[in-house]
Specification:
Radius of gyration: 41 Å
Helix content: under 10%
Distance between the termini: 94 Å
Number of helices: 2
Strand content: over 45%
């Protein structure tokens, strides 16, 4: 026997894990005690504190907010517990940890545990609510937490999902995304009340309802149909990769780009689709490598903030765009009556707003490199912060919109200056604008204003010889020696006036005659200082000066010729889609209004699914009902049904997914 005990002692020394841990449940089989909120229950361990086998007993509740221990929680063999709130069908445990001696002859002190199991029930709920909607991705989850009334209501629920292939839900309300789609999550109380939450599951790489993004080798590609989500600064799903993104490709079918979508990226090249309809705010904010951007034909909505990249030097627009145009890298609306955006990084420290402009958009001149800005009196409306470049001097008329814009800007504590153009000593050389159709000869004046005296004036006229032919130049002598350019077929024509005295003339100094070629659209006529035969003369000061050889500070304002080879035009507006496709047609003609209008609607396979005919009028409205498969429509203007000769080019409109 002694030998057996010795072997056991050695085994225990070598294998201490064999020393047993005392453990007992309150009953031979696990028993769950059910309490109602407010109930009190006494737990009796059946042991006595201080006895040889029950020492240092400490009591713990797994959730004191649901079931609390009354009084102290140590050195007692019996304890009361009180039910405070529903446990929602889940077990709350009371654990008693103690120490006891284990057997002769060693009298080892070992730990022991008693565990008691409770479920707390509340009153029958009178109501249950869930958040109406929630969004997750196919790799994330969310815990839905119902709210019950009254305060002590039973919170146990049964959960289920309307589509477990989209989202699953656990017994505790944890919803896990599985695949793209929508599922309704329902929670039901013990007495049959229900609440629902519609959960939308999006792909991890979603950036719109039907858009996804991918990044490969520095190229960020947006694919799908419809509009993109709006974001905040550094809040895009690809924000962690901004420094890697050098190219952005937005695929055909995308109709909108959200706020801050590509801000703070390293992008240098952007490709935008013809389907794009709108740009959000600050889309290209803080993109230090983006120098140029071309806007597509379908774009119809953006603000100056949309193109707020500090490094942007020029903007161009597709000639097919009906809403915007660009001239010399500056963005305007189609007819150049609104200046939308002057690129912040554009070369040059001075700019003259064309006289066709009457409005300046918000953030149009935000944080530019300009030192001086000439604002003609034709500009009558300037949006708040439309001119917002610190340190800029704005030249305009006293009491004008330009002066008010400076006052608004400086009232925010920033610095901008206003100078009355009549006293600024600012000499302006401007080219006028004209209109005509192909084959016409149009006359364009070159004017001098703000001139207080010059002895040498050298200017250069530039134009596109593929669109215009300069046929003659009628120049004023001005009491000075006039020297004309050498030819009229190079696209550059130089003019100079030289005198020993100061010439103070203001007004038309030359009239240019251009023959309009077979073209359509707006053709710029540029003006700048005379570059001479050997190249550019620095900043122009050394070829334009007063009789005292002081530099003549010239400002230059270009003009243009607007021409169209189609006398009659069709314009589509007020487009509305849904159960009914409706739109307005406006006709413009130099002839008497007549003939017929035909509107034809086609489905995705090119099959005709709607046709309407009306007598031609200046304004006509069409409406087609119940054509959900419509993909595009065409409007034709014909002389009559007997003579199907077109009066104007047909107008075709493709419907995007977002418009349908």
């Amino acid at each position: 026997m002694k030998k057996l005990l010795s072997m056991l002692f050695v085994c225990i020394l070598i294998c201490p894990a064999l020393i047993p841990t005392a453990y007992a449940e309150p009953t031979p089989e696990r028993k769950t005690i059910y309490l109602n909120v407010g109930d009190r229950y006494t737990i009796e361990t059946g042991r006595t504190i201080g006895s040889d086998d029950f020492l240092n007993a400490n009591w713990y509740s797994s959730d004191p907010s649901k079931l609390e221990i009354v009084g102290q929680n140590f050195n007692k063999d019996t304890s009361d517990v009180r039910a405070l709130a529903s446990s929602g069908g889940k077990i709350v445990t009371i654990r008693v940890e103690f120490e006891e001696y284990w057997g002769d002859p060693w009298l080892e002190l070992i730990p022991g545990t008693f565990i008691y199991y409770f479920v707390i029930r509340g009153e029958d709920p009178q109501s249950i609510t869930l958040p109406p909607t929630a969004e997750i991705t196919d790799t994330t989850s969310i815990t839905l937490t119902p709210e019950f009334a009254p305060e002590n209501a039973e919170t146990a629920c049964t959960w289920w999902s309307s589509d477990t292939s989209v989202a699953s839900v656990s017994d505790s309300g944890v919803v896990k995304g599985i695949s793209k789609g929508t599922a309704v999550i329902t929670a039901e109380t013990v007495n049959g009340l229900t609440a629902q939450c519609t959960v939308t599951v999006r792909p991890t790489n979603a950036c719109g309802e039907d858009l996804e993004w991918s990044l490969d080798g520095g190229v960020l590609t947006i694919t799908g149909t419809g509009g993109m989500y709006d974001y905040g600064v550094d809040d895009t799903p690809w924000a962690d990769h901004n420094d890697e993104i050098t190219n952005i490709v937005v695929s055909e079918g995308v109709t909108g780009i959200g706020d801050y979508a590509f801000s703070s990226t390293a992008v240098s090249e952007v490709a935008l689709p013809e389907s794009l309809l709108e740009l959000g705010d600050e889309v290209f904010f803080d993109c230090p490598n983006l120098r140029h951007i071309e806007l597509p034909s379908g774009l119809r909505s953006l603000t100056g903030d949309s193109l707020s990249g500090y490094a942007l030097e020029s903007i161009s627009v597709s000639g097919e765009n009906q809403y915007f145009s660009a001239y010399d890298g500056v963005l305007y609306n189609k007819d150049m009556t609104t200046l939308v955006r002057y690129p912040s990084g554009k070369d040059g420290d001075r700019f003259c707003i064309p006289p066709s402009v009457s409005q300046i958009s918000h953030a149009a001149f935000y944080s530019t490199e300009l030192k001086g800005l000439y604002v003609p009196e034709t500009v009558t409306e300037i949006a708040y912060f439309g001119i917002s470049t610190s340190g800029l001097t704005v030249y305009g008329a006293k009491g004008s919109a330009a002066e008010q814009a400076v006052l608004d800007y400086t009232s925010s504590g920033l610095t901008m200056y206003f100078t009355d153009i009549s006293t600024a000593g600012c000499t302006m050389v401007s080219v006028g604008s004209a209109g005509g159709k192909a084959g016409d000869t149009v006359y364009v004046p070159v004017r001098l204003s703000g001139n207080t005296g010059f002895a040498n004036l050298n200017i250069q006229i530039s134009y596109d010889t593929s669109k215009l032919t300069l046929t003659s130049v009628q120049a004023q002598e001005l009491g000075a020696l006039y020297t004309p350019g050498a030819g009229m077929d190079t696209g550059v024509y130089n003019m100079s006036w030289d005198s020993a005295d100061n010439i103070t003339y203001n007004g038309t100094i030359a009239t240019l005659a251009f023959e309009v070629k077979d073209l359509s659209g707006r053709t710029p006529i540029g003006v700048s200082f005379y570059t001479g035969l050997s190249g550019t003369y620095g900043d122009g000061y050394d070829v334009n000066y007063t009789a005292e050889y002081e530099p003549l500070d010239l400002w230059y304002l270009s003009g243009d010729i607007q021409s169209d080879d189609v006398l009659d035009a069709i314009t589509i507006d007020n487009l509305s889609t849904g159960d009914t496709l409706s739109f307005s047609v406006q006709l413009a003609s130099e002839h008497e209004m007549g003939g017929v209008l035909i509107a034809a609607v086609y489905d995705g396979d090119g099959r005709l699914c709607g046709l309407d005919l009306r007598k031609a009028a200046e304004h006509t409205t069409f409406a087609f009902a119940q054509i959900p498969d419509a993909q595009r429509f065409m409007v034709l203007w014909l002389e009559s049904m007997e003579n199907l000769k077109p009066i104007s080019k047909s107008k075709e409109v493709t419907l995007s997914q977002a418009e349908k």
